[in-house]
Amino acid sequence: MSQSSAGSIESVLQEGRKFAPRAEFTARANISSEAEYEKMWNRAKDDPAGFWGELAENLTWFKKYDSVLSGNMPDTKWFNGGKINASVQCLDRHLTSWRKNKAAIIWEGEPGDTRVLRYQDLYREVCQFANVLKSLGVKTGDRVTLYMPMIPELAIAMLACARIGATHSIIFGGFSADAIADRNNDAKAKVVVTADGGWRRGKVVSLKAAVDESMERSPSVEKVVVVRRTGSDVTMTPDRDFWWHDLMQDADTDCDPVELDSEHPLFILYTSGSTGKPKGVLHTTAGYMLGTMMTSKWVFDLKDDDTYWCTADIGWVTGHSYIVYGPLANGATTMMYEGAPNWPDEGRFWNLVEKYKVNIFYTAPTAIRAFIKWGDQWPGKYDLSSLRLLGSVGEPINPEAWMWYHRVIGQERCPIVDTWWQTETGAIMISPLPGITAAKPGSCTKPLPGVVPDIVRKDGTSVGANEGGLLVMKQPWPSMLRTLYGDHERFVSTYFGDIEGCYFAGDGARKDSDGYYWVMGRVDDVLNVAGHRLSTMEIESALVSHPNVAEAAVVGFPHDLKGEGICCFVSLKSGDGNDELIKELTAHVRKQIGAVATPDVIRFATALPKTRSGKIMRRLLRDVAAGRVSTQDTTTLEDLTVLEKLRQDED
Ligand code: PRX
What is the DSSP code string of 468-527? Predict the structure, then answer.
């Protein structure tokens, strides 16, 4: 475990504050007593099939499954033999009730334009786009890449894929042409859906140009559909590129959902690994839908009269599970906002909360740190009294940020759910239940029903209270990833290779004497920059692809706003580094990977610290990057003077 995570344990260890929900909240909560939670949790642990089988009655099935759970981790199957369709859970079943006229999606674009799609509007457009996909040759089992801004068409395209059993692969709009090509090729995507651009801080993000560039290296892609969003000029390649609105005009408004196996692949989402190329995390249909539906209800306490807003981008798993699938499966009203939180000014989010009377607000610690920096005057200008519940996700929330969120945004009235989960887990795993859990700032508290975690040493033995260790799952859960697309072996070795019989995806944690979990961050070399997982290895590869770079090592360092910043140590082939080259390398990384990976610091070094076998010792560089005096074991270091030299360079 790195020094930085050890450091964060110490600060949270001193955290003794506890905040219980108010009686008014508890009285109306979906889970309202500790005894109820205990009963659910024990039942799910002792009889997972019985527990999840009963909950699965809440899904709409074409054909009931033969068994709830079969097999053991890593190869589990949920609801085997059942026939189901995710779009039916999110749409069709709401049309037979009063919800047909309920707002499904309330959307606001960055320039201030708005759209409200009622459930029947969303249904109609999803059916139309499903027919469009079919007309472009997309069949059940094919993959479709979505590289889009935060506009309703993105949710429509996801659900349209689900309707016909095409597997979507969403690529966050901040990624570059190369990243798109890599993902298109890995998934062998047949169609790409994009837009002429999206609005971000008053400027157009040119998505179509990046797609065009990626096409040279994406041989599997046959057609590209382009949403007109910004009206900016784009090049349309005849017979390959089509405007969304042209295709939709002629499309039928009915499209029968395909009856899919419970384990049919719903989506692939690429996430960084510590080594090698990005991992195509694959989620399937029934278990994922059940997991996201139930956790939305339990953790966000969703009610029919709530306006719920998750500020994530749909390009990340949070947006998949908690903007689209989870809320819509519950028939909730989910809000979507296209742009930046500081456009036209730093009050935009609070303006949206006031304007739409948002009740439930789910964001990331990195955003909270930015709000703190911008000052209390921004939320202070708006009426936030509609808020009743706040959430946080993406990285450990620092207790002082938690307190600010509680005091300034929640006005000491709203419970905060600090939700721990991962792309791989599909749904929230460890989180307060807002009606019953007394929150401790910085702790994600306790496992949800159906989640059986432990904290273990490398040999698999459980650690004691307040002792740090590896956070593992001992029992399978319905929304867990089923494989890494095209590389089942890597799936098995990455998640099940470390601790016998357990799932381990890389986080360190400790449990306090009340049984509360405190996640300490990742134990490997993956960075968590502004809530986004980035592979150090990918950034290093990008740097090394510059003609003047000999070698690079990338590490994270504590960053006020982003949680972790990106520090690059670069050794050059010839000559000395200078400001010009720093600019050039920064631009180079942005081009190769995307703006999310923009280096915060680039330092030139004549040599990097390595082990005798030639592995760069990033754990030592982390100390240098953070300006700490290292107390780490340096016995495997090949040349001690290298470290000394790096420190002197800093002075
Ligand atoms: O390290 C944990 C951190 O984010 C990682 C998962 O990242 P990703 O797959 O991109 O998914 C982010 C959204 C679910 C985890 O391994 N993380 C996420 N939520 C928390 C967290 N760390 C501490 N507390 C959290 N609430």
Answer: -EEEEE-S--TTS--EETT-HHHHHHHHHSSSTTSEEEEEEEEE-TTS-EEEEEESSSEE
Of all protein residues, the one whose alpha carbon is nearest to atom 12 of ligand 1 is 394
Nearest to 214 by CA among 183, 188, 259: 183
State how far the Cα of 182 lies from the Cα of 162, in Å rounded to an integer. 23
What angle (nearest 5°) sits at the alpha carbon of residue 171, between those of residues 167 and 175? 160
Which tokens belong to 143?
Answer: 């993959």
Ligand 1 centroid – CA 531 distance (Å):
7
* pLDDT over threshold 70, residue 154: yes
> What residue spans of 95-191 are helical by DSSP H?
119-135, 152-164, 177-187
- 418 CB near ligand 1 (under 6 Å): yes
Q: Which amino acid is at 391?
A: G
pLDDT in tens, 194-226: 999 999 999 999 999 999 999 999 999 999 999
pLDDT digits (tens, 9 = 90+) for 521-566: 777 767 888 888 777 777 887 888 898 988 888 999 999 888 889 9
Q: Which domains does the chain have, with CATH numbers?
A: 23-85+264-518 (3.40.50.12780), 90-258 (3.40.50.12780), 526-650 (3.30.300.30)
Nearest CA to ligand 1 atom 25: 420
Is 394 close to ligand 1, i.e. is its CB under 6 Å away?
Answer: yes
Full-prediction pTM beyond 0.85? yes
Between the CA of 350 and the centroid of ligand 1 the distance, in Å, is 25
Close Cβ partners of 202 (under 8 Å, ≥ 6 residues apart): 110, 343, 344
Q: Which residues of 233-253 are buried (b: 16+ CB within 10 A; e: fewer)?
A: ebeeeeeebbebeebbeebee
454 Cβ contact partners less than 8 Å away, ≥ 6 residues apart: 462, 471, 472, 474, 502
For residue 202, which amino acid is it?
G
Q: Is the CB of 317 under 6 A from ligand 1?
A: yes
One-letter amino acid for residue 115 of the chain: R
What is the pLDDT at residue 345? 98
Q: Is the CB of 533 under 6 A from ligand 1?
A: yes
Ligand 1 pocket member 534 (CB < 6 A): no
pLDDT tens readout for residues 458-487: 899 999 998 888 999 999 999 999 999 999
Rounded to the nearest 5°, which phi and psi values hold at 28?
A: -105, 0
**Both structure tokens of 197:** 């651009």
620 has pLDDT over 90: no
Phi-psi region of 544 (alpha: psi -120 to 50; beta: other; left: phi over 0): alpha
Collapsing DSSP to helix, strand or coil, 167 comes out as strand
**What is the tens place of the pLDDT at every residue in 621-648?**
888 888 876 666 555 555 667 777 777 6
